[in-house]
Amino acid sequence: MSSKDQYAHYSSILREFLHLGGSPVAIGFAHDAKDIPEGFEELSENMRHCQMVGLARDEERSFFARREVHSCAGGAWSLGLAPLTKSLESGEFYFKLGKFESASSCKRTIANVPALASGSVHATMYAPLGSAPFAPAVVVLTAEPAFMLKLAQAYLFKFGGRIESSFAGIQSVCADAATFPYMSGKVNISLGCDGSRKFSSIAKEYMVAGMPFEVVSEIVAALPVVCGAPGSSTPL
Description:
The chain has helices at about 5-20, 50-60, 75-80, 85-90, 90-95, 105-110, 145-155, 170-185, 195-200, 215-225; strands at about 25-30, 65, 125-130, 140-145, 190, 205-210. The model has no long low-confidence stretch (mean pLDDT about 95). The protein is globular, with a radius of gyration of 17 Å. It has ten helices and six strands. It has a six-stranded antiparallel beta sheet with strand order 2-3-1-4-6-5.
């Protein structure tokens, strides 16, 4: 099976069994200009990473984005495109938004947000998984809690264990769903954040998940089994 056919198959299974809110989104990290597919569309308008994911998810657009068009400083930092700003590092940014009681509690949270090395990423790449023209690093999806349950069961189907989700109510689509799975090699399920729900149209009934691409084949193979199991509470 070619990569193109493989990606289309993965997308079809994920959409069918997880009843996704739009297409699963392939995300790639271009560490150099040569990592960007020839002829690939470059995004020219400024927007947040979560909005870019929304374009690929809801409108099935494929494109890459350099640092200059990433309008969210937190997202650009977490994705390895830019250094951490002083207002984020000190805790003042989210403290002024009323998200924390003190700048200190915010600073402690920021210190634990997953982030790629500053400047290690030249551009981020986005596409619907089914038609991605690059090898995905991470696949991001949105689904209702009942179907996130099936994702969790499919992830544990072969080797078992437990899932420990990592989130902080901020930077959910960038740090939680893209950077963390890429760095850890683990699936991460997040409750989303105010910014991503506001700017990328994630409905209140949906959660967010990110999967390192290496585990997608195992999840796709297991989903029909766990969803069709006699003890499954979720209909196919």
